[in-house]
Design goal:
single chain; mainly beta
Length: 223
């Protein structure tokens, strides 16, 4: 692996219209020489575990994390180009990006929305995948209690190394996404995802900071 990672601006971008203002873009092979970038980040990023409070005790997240903020050294120069290209295409500004490492099949993340952004009605969340190919599932919130196979997942975008997924519009209001756990018997290798996130202050913010806080969001849209 001796190439120089860079954005391939000629790859086609497929838009999946999810309805009610939600959409997802998929660009296969968006980052050329992605494995070079993957190996660098796997080796050089100071990965850390996070602890979450669940009910009455703390648990360790089953994944590793790191982040970058504007004004600090980049983990790799290719990510400066990636940030510029995404900002130009989607007309937004990112103050930084997060990084997640799924070490093996026992690491993953259940269905969720990025409610910590608070403003869910008009968002842009770009996700660059590096390393092992994993299932990456997207389903409407209305299907979260279904008994159907896959628990209601209607899209498995399964990004390979270098693939880009962008969730936009009202996707965080009406849809959930996940990286399914594969179990200890899986032989899948590490996967790294890089996430850029932007939210417009449109509608009413999600409120869920305390047990008694209302959980709601507005269906109003900016046109």
């Amino acid at each position: 692996m001796s190439g120089v990672p860079s954005v391939d601006r000629d790859v086609p971008i497929e838009r999946i219209e999810l309805g009610d203002g939600a959409w997802a873009d998929v660009a296969r092979g968006w980052m050329a020489d992605a494995d070079v970038l993957y190996e660098h980040l796997l080796r050089e990023v100071p990965w850390q575990t996070n602890r979450l409070y669940r009910y009455d005790h703390e648990v360790e997240e089953r994944r590793l994390g790191a982040s970058w903020r504007s004004g600090t050294p980049l983990p790799h120069p290719a990510l400066a180009e990636a940030t510029r290209v995404l900002q130009h295409r989607y007309g937004v500004q990112f103050g930084g990006f997060g990084m997640i490492q799924y070490r093996d099949g026992t690491d993953g993340q259940g269905f969720h929305r990025d409610t910590d952004m608070r403003w869910l009605d008009d968002t842009v969340i770009a996700i660059l995948s590096l390393g092992a190919q994993r299932a990456w599932t997207l389903r409407p919130r209305s299907a979260r209690h279904t008994d159907a196979p896959g628990k209601g997942a209607v899209h498995d975008l399964a990004p390979a190394s270098g693939d880009l997924i962008v969730m936009g519009g009202s996707c965080q209001a009406g849809w959930e996404h996940s990286v399914p756990y594969l179990g200890a018997q899986s032989t899948v290798g590490p996967r790294i995802s890089i996430q850029w996130r932007f939210a417009r202050r449109t509608g009413r913010p999600f409120q869920g900071a305390s047990y008694n806080a209302p959980l709601h969001y507005s269906r109003e849209r900016r046109h």
